[in-house]
Amino acid sequence: MPAEIIAVEPSSPAERAGLRAGDALVAIDGHAVHDVLDYKFYGYEPRVTVETLRGDEAHSCVIRKREGEDLGLTFASYLIDEQKGCCNRCVFCFIDQLPPGMRRTLYFKDDDARLSFLMGNYISMTNLSDEDAARIARMRVSPLNISVHTTNPELRTRMLGNPNGGASLRHLYYFAQHGIAMQCQIVVCPGYNDGDELRRTLRELSVLYPAVRGVAVVPVGLTRFRERLPHLEPVDQDGARGIIAVIDEARAANEQTHGAPICFAADELYLKAGLPIPAPEYYGEYAQLENGVGLMSLFESELRCALAMEEKIRIAPFAVATGRGAADFMRRMIDEIAKRCDNEVQYEVFAVRNDFFGEGVNVAGLVTGGDIIAQLRGKITAKRLLVPRVMLRHGETVFLDDVSISDMEQALGVTVIPVEIDGGMFLDAVLERQE
Question: What's the rounded Cα separation, in Å, for the pair 431 and 435?
């Protein structure tokens, strides 16, 4: 079906060729355009023939441009066609654990391989046909982010709540054979895929190196909204230490066999285990930051680099609100800053208890505005409050519970400053050098 063009970028190749809003894109170089992958793949060359409809009238034009330059067309949907939803019923699904009454968009579960490549989303592969996989290989859609969880077919079928859970593992081997790079993820659920099952999964994924570039292991996240959901145990301190031990065992074997560790434990596992965060060397290129792997190590490295470029500095009082998991780390980072100051640094770090999702949720990205207001009202002595930007909806100034920054500023009587998880940017915010 032709894709309606809703806008044409000024001075773009498409505008120079006479295309305009209201036209419909039919094909590029004779290939029908069904979605964004077709649009980008077939539109990559420096000379393309574009077929369109203007009303009922067919048009064809040759467009010359730089190789890889976008044609400059905007469609009603970024994907051009509909986004693929998830057909799984994973025992650990976080969306199933959301409370009622939140924004509708938060309840949509995507499982779209195109968004894995374009946006970094993770996919389970259960809705991928062999034709889909062949198209991915043909178009070199790489890298992909894959939610594996286990390589035991029967266990994967049970954990994903999908009869295709085990069978879809075949795509891993197909992608590896065709040179498609993959970053993999394992959400560890005690009693399901830990222990020997985790050993098996790490071993079998490592065989696919270098196609499998890395495997992130993260603990299951459990909220207080699990009525009518399968019973799951949280990862406790002993469990976290056991998981890290299995990962370290696999890393040592991989270093010997492949010359690369391949497997990585999420920061949250070290926090739960009460163990220090590893040195930067553990993380290599920090390729699994989206999974919370190496965020703290990278933050500390960035902060130290930024501090090394500073002379003596002075800092006005400030406060920081974060999740309980990161509070001690942030205090230690601020103490590092204080060593470079020629005045006494007055600061407060508030470890916000997650009453909204439940006390078992300690990550900063799931702290809500309402919890910050309820727990910090009347307690902040500074005039500015720094919060991690990951607490806010992407591209917005509201928290997950729809509390806005202005709501918080009014309730707490402070200036609220969102800060990226970046050591240098944090130092700039502390020094009031933010743009």
Answer: 12
